[in-house]
Structure formats: structure tokens, C-alpha cells
Amino acid sequence: MAQARGKQAQFISDRSGMSFLYQESKKEWNGSLVHKSEFESKHPQLEPKKKRIDAEALKDPRPDRSETVVPHLLGLNPFTTTASDATITVKEPEHGRSTSDTVRFRDALVVGGISNSVINLSSGYTITKVDDNSYTFEATSTPTISETGGGIVASAGPVTITN
Asked: What is the set of domains in the chain, with CATH numbers?
């Protein structure tokens, strides 16, 4: 089928039904052939932009893990004893412990005449919280002198350390 291409070729507009020169025709987005004066571009709302999905999930997520309980290093000479009183005061800044917690001491030295094996008892001691920086426990033997001591590298922690 041959198509007219000459200067005098005409077409009929799909919008107005009027006759115009073929060279002045334009095709709209909906396929209508119209004159250039009648041309309307596609409304932007008819072609919405792609929606970007909010990232809600992490790529390769891993479950939260619970940290193992570890002993806390105590300061220099953390134990204070009073002669003839089995209550020993422990200085541990910001310890976060509560009354009735069980604490085991490790690497403590002799203090107030109580041997290090008594202080470093493997079953630990039930403590009584005094404040956020200290607590007390009842030793299995009574000190002979009032003293502050316990060494340089003593630590306080759980009775058993989990790996």
C-alpha cells in the first residue's frame, strides 16, 4: 500500500475531525494522529514514577548474641577487714551487683589474717550490696586484724565462667 508524501498530502485529525497537511501531523501517546496545534503530551500522573521500597530488613542478618560473663578486675587492695568480724567489705566501683548475688574472687592475697584460699573460695560468696561502689560478704573465717589489702590483680566474677 502506497502512502502519500507530497507537499499537498492531507490527513484528518482524530481529535477535531478537520483536515490538515500531513507534514504538520503528530502522533500522541494514545495513538491518535492530530495536528501539531492540537497535540497534548501525556499527563505525568498517567505514568507514575516507580516507587522506591523502604529498606526494612538487613542484608545477611545475624541474631543478637549474649556476651559471656567475665570477671572484673578489682582496684588496688579492694578488701577491708575488721578484727573479730567475719564481714569483709569489697570496693568495686560501679559493680552492678545486687544483694544475694554470688561472687567468686580470684587471685586475691592474704588480708586481715585471712588466707588467700579462704577469700578465693571456689564456690564464691553471697554478697550484700552496700552501694553502687561496694558490697560485703561473710568470710568462712574471722580476721585477726583490721586491714585493707588483697593485692594488685584480684578479680571478682561469676562462680563459673562460660565460654
From this structure: 10-41 (no CATH), 72-157 (2.40.30.20)
